[in-house]
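User:
Can I borrow your eye for a moment on a structure tokenisation matter? Would you put together a sequence-and-structure record for a protein of your own picking? Please set it down just below, with no commentary around it:
AI:
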Amino acid sequence: MIFLDLEFNNGMFETEYFDEVLQIGAVQVDSLGGMMTGTFNTFIRPRINKRLSPGARFLPELEESMERGMPFEEAYALWLDFIEGETEFAEWGRDDYKILSRNAIRFGLEPVYPGRYIDVQTAFSRALGSKNGAQLYQAAEYCRVPDTFCFHDALNDAMYTSLVAGCLPRKYLRESVIDLRPADIPPPPRPPMRKKRGQVRMGPFQSLDQALNNMGCRRAVCPQCRRVGRIAAWHTQDGVVYLGAADCPVHGPVIRRMKVLPDEGGRFWTYNDILPATDRNLRLLERARSKETYACVNRCSPSDTRRRKEYRSKSRHKKKK
């Protein structure tokens, strides 16, 4: 029997919400509550999620994964060698084996489906007559398991899970056995569809010159890599709709369209959006370039300068206190 535990990065800051495994830890026992006959511990170098979630950022062995971790394919091959012949698994919860299988599918590997696995967390809650899932450290403290090793390390958590399971009545463990089938492990989630954003209204501006030079109106974000660029010049055919382009070093031109309209008080409002770099939009940009061009000036408005001076004076005042 094998007790499994994972540490992973859930990719909450990425466009695709994917639980990428950072560490696989497991202990092998001859029976529930019996002797440990083997351990497994490997660290994996992340390749999908570029930023760390708050939970992954404070893992005690994070440095091992980031600097000395191995590719997932190699780690999974070692894992298959370790579990060869085993059909019964257990873990604290019911998600780790599914996450491990999803990672295998993501990297083009064939996942292995155990005959059954035991949700020790559910068994512990049933033993206490509680409907709320307890944390592993709470269960270890309740069962008087010495906290010799730190939690949130995959190998240590797998060991703590096996010790807690050995303290539980067997009937609650049998009631918490779940048959795991291939249909229970869905494929990795697809990247979420980005909502189409409408035109962003900005203003009011006291003059057309102020609107065309505003840094917010000139901000061009690449829709693919989110790299921020600035419009250096506007081009227009009718004096109402202005087109500008910023260059993304990875994905090419980013076309920004801005519609400038005056209100009854003589102030100007802008309506801004990003156009896809299609052949049609590139031709529109070239036609606008042949008509009228407005070169932008990198300067701040008087109100921006005043706000910056006020902010700096407040910061100096706070430092003196």
